[in-house]
Amino acid sequence: MLDNVITFRKADAVLEFPTFDGDKAGDIWFQFKTTAMDGVMIHNTGETENDFIQIRMINGDTIQFRYNVGNGIQVLEYKTINGLDNDIWHTVHVERNRKQTWLRVDNFPEVVFNEQQVHHVLIKLT
């Protein structure tokens, strides 16, 4: 769990990663610990101004996965009972495929959004 630990000493610090390649399916998994109440953990924009994915913490107790693949913003949100800004390690796992998008925080049950079966829109990030 402690391999490749990164410490941010400024509120506007940024770490750049390669573009998330999840046009048809993909997942993001990471661990964090913080005392901050709010923050954007991952943000990746797409080919158009409407396409993006974002994982953020709100009010110290909620993880939110927001994304738009050109057909409107979808939001999956998990609010914890004990908070996330308690300086202990937490796990976030997000997955999107042709049928579902889901968000899991720690070992709690996932929040699931069933994608429209009419067509699957690809995420095209840059």
Output mean pLDDT: 84
Strand count: 8
The H-and-E topology, N to C, reads as: EEEEEEEE
Q: Strand content of the residues, in percent? A: 35-45%
Strand order of the largest sheet: 1-6-7-8
Organism: Dreissena polymorpha
Domain Laminin G: 1-126
Protein name: Laminin G domain-containing protein
Pfam families: Laminin_G_2 (PF02210)
Task: For this entry, give a set of tags.
single chain; 126 residues; mainly beta; Jelly Rolls; 4-stranded antiparallel sheet
Characterise this structure:
By secondary structure, the chain is mainly beta. The protein has one domain: Sandwich (Jelly Rolls). The protein has no helices and 8 strands. The protein has strands at 26-32, 39-45, 52-58, 62-68, 73-79, 90-96, 100-105, 111-114. The strands form 2 sheets. The protein has a 4-stranded antiparallel beta sheet, with no helix packed on it. Strands 2-3-4-5 form a 4-stranded antiparallel beta sheet, with no helix packed on it. The two termini are 29 Å apart. The model has no long low-confidence stretch (mean pLDDT 84). Residues 1-126 form the Laminin G domain. This is Laminin G domain-containing protein. It comes from Dreissena polymorpha. InterPro entries: ConA-like_dom_sf, Laminin_G, Neurexin-related_CASP. Pfam families: Laminin_G_2 (PF02210).
Short summary of the structure?
It contains no helices and eight strands.
Element layout with pairings:
Elements (H helix, E strand, L loop, with lengths): L25 E7 L6 E7 L6 E7 L3 E7 L4 E7 L10 E7 L3 E6 L5 E4 L12
